[in-house]
Specification:
The protein is an all-alpha fold. The chain contains 15 helices and no strands.
Length: 310
Amino acid sequence: MGTGFGLFTVLYLFNAGTFLIDRSVHDWSPAAAIATALAFLVVFWIVYDAICRVFGRREHGELLVGIGVVIAVTVASWLACHWFAGRAAFLLIGAMLATTMTGNVAHWIIPGQRKVVAQIRAGEPVDPIHGWRGKQRSVHNTYFTLPVIVAMLSNHYGWLVEGPNNWLVLVLLMLAGALIRYSFVARHRAAVEGRRTPWEHAIVGTLAIVGLVAWLAPERPRGGAQAAAAPVAYAQVRAVIDQRCAMCHGDAVQQKGVSLQTAELLGRHAQQVYQQAVVLRQMPFGNATQMTEEERALVKRWYEGGAPVK
């Protein structure tokens, strides 16, 4: 936890203007973005802990807590994806859940175990609340594991994090991870009890991932539509490159060894431009130069039209 928060601080908080903020998503100051990002970690823990305390011991408490947590995570994902750059939003939600897992261990599970041990040693009756609460939070941590991994790794894939409905993509990915993780637990329980292995949750989680793949898969260019679309001239795409890409790939700076300042160089790197700006949507980094959807579409038509440089 400490190492992860340290990396998050160094990479994202210290460089909030580049990593946290996408002004086409939400235009605010680095200080406000940093404060809000840190608030996500704290506020979600408070909300989650309150849900567990208020509903956990009621009739159908596990179901009520599960519904409450899903709603809280969904709202947090929607807010994060409408306030922060896509990559930062996905990573922040992963960090939020990881912080909650740490809070469960540090605030309830370990202290509860210590109190139980102390009561046993003192010959006092053991308060069952500690065991009940420790089990509850341990189960939650188990189900949070795959959603945390999914949220933190998926920020490396621009086609996941930069779409118009990226919050829904994130929620569905985490839900699929939770269902698959639950299936692992149910499978082991069924083996111990000699029952049929319940594969239903894993199947639903897998189908959710397959559905996401089908939903997010890029459309294949159609010959008729491509022919009907107006061809993109080199001068048009040159204007976009000079305005949106030259800052990092021009005469003065060549990030990752990619230079685009001449027609020859642009033609040489046409596929990389298409992949990074159109397919993966990772460039411009953090959309720092505010490339528009229309400009990305123009680059797409230019590349699929043969990437002319004359």
